[in-house]
Amino acid sequence: MNYPKKFNDLIQAFQKLPGVGAKTAERYAYTMLDWDPETLNDFLDAMNHMKTGIQRCKICGNLSSGEKCSICADPDRNRNMICVVESPKDIAAIESMQEYNGVYHVLNGTINMKKGILPDQLNIQSLLDRINEETQEVILATDPTMDGETTALYIEKLLKDKVKITRLAYGIPIGGHLDYTDSLTLLRAFQGRK
């Protein structure tokens, strides 16, 4: 359909979001068109504050509204246990369990030679700087992908003589079937058996 340029620009802006195709972007644009001015201003304010009001925690790299994120600022967290994740959204997933009371370290990606992402482009050096004699454990919670595994192995080599290193267990999900499970997942399930 032939929309006015500014409406088309809005549709194209929404299409830059992951998983948003042309039809969904068009629905979003029409939805915004129907908003009252107050709702639209609230949305625009939130978008503007995203760039000026959200920063990275100077300690762990998590999203924060100040120098420290709420987790690093919490005096009740166990600072001797560090869970290493790829991105801040991984922290949200782990926190939803309400079982882990340690702190985190965000790598901001994974090593990927094909894309030219090397270890020095990740938040690894600051992790090494955080490790001291009081650090009891570093939990490597990278995704079970080739890049996640490569990154975890790299960090494990750097830390192997300095601190206890553990990995998240991988295996067959509840409700899964053995005959549908790929061989790598099945291997991980056997290796991590109790």
UniProtKB/TrEMBL annotation:
UniProt xrefs under CDD domains: TOPRIM_recR (cd01025)
Keyword annotations of the record: DNA damage, DNA recombination, DNA repair, Metal-binding, Zinc, Zinc-finger
C4-type zinc-finger residues: 57-72
Tagged with keyword Zinc: yes
Phosphoprotein among keywords: no
PROSITE patterns (UniProt xref): RECR (PS01300), TOPRIM (PS50880)
BP GO terms, sorted: DNA recombination; DNA repair
InterPro entries: DNA_Rcmb_RecR (IPR000093), Rcmb_RecR (IPR023627), Rcmb_RecR_Znf (IPR015967), TOPRIM_dom (IPR006171), TOPRIM_RecR (IPR034137)
MF terms (GO), sorted A to Z: DNA binding; zinc ion binding
Domain Toprim: 80-173
Family the entry assigns: Belongs to the RecR family.
HAMAP family per the UniProt record, alphabetical: RecR (MF_00017)
Function: May play a role in DNA repair. It seems to be involved in an RecBC-independent recombinational process of DNA repair. It may act with RecF and RecO.
PANTHER family: RECOMBINATION PROTEIN RECR (PTHR30446:SF0)
NCBIfam families (UniProt xref): recR (TIGR00615)
The protein's name in its UniProt record: Recombination protein RecR
Gene that encodes it: recR
